[in-house]
Amino acid sequence: MKTEFENIPLVKTEKRFEIEFNGHYAFIDYHETSHQISLIHTEAEPELAGTGAAAAVVEKTLHYIEESGKKLLPFCPYVFAFIKKHPEWKRIVDEKFNAYDKL
């Protein structure tokens, strides 16, 4: 994660994990059960394009999921690609996830 995002807090709302950077948002829509968190869609406002904000919100969210003790279901293509690029995060993916073997 780029250093400018390190001290920005991750905010969990009813439907999203989000960060705010220079008045703009990067977020991930999610669904949560007692044992799993499904990440559905990642988006950053156009003003944040190319800044690394989307990767930062993903990394912060993965840390949150790990600390919560829950398992991840990475339905979002961006999150899935992030985990393929950073395979150390496969440790929090639920082994029952259909594409687990493709990570």
UniProtKB/TrEMBL annotation:
Record keywords, A-Z: Transferase
The keyword Transferase is assigned to this record: yes
Ion transport listed as a keyword: no
InterPro entries: Acyl_CoA_acyltransferase (IPR016181), Gcn5-rel_NAT (IPR045057), GNAT_YJDJ (IPR031165)
GO molecular function (one): transferase activity
Pfam families documented for this protein: Acetyltransf_CG
Domain N-acetyltransferase, chain residue ranges per copy: 9-94
Protein name per its UniProtKB record: Acetyltransferase
Annotated organism of origin: Chryseobacterium artocarpi
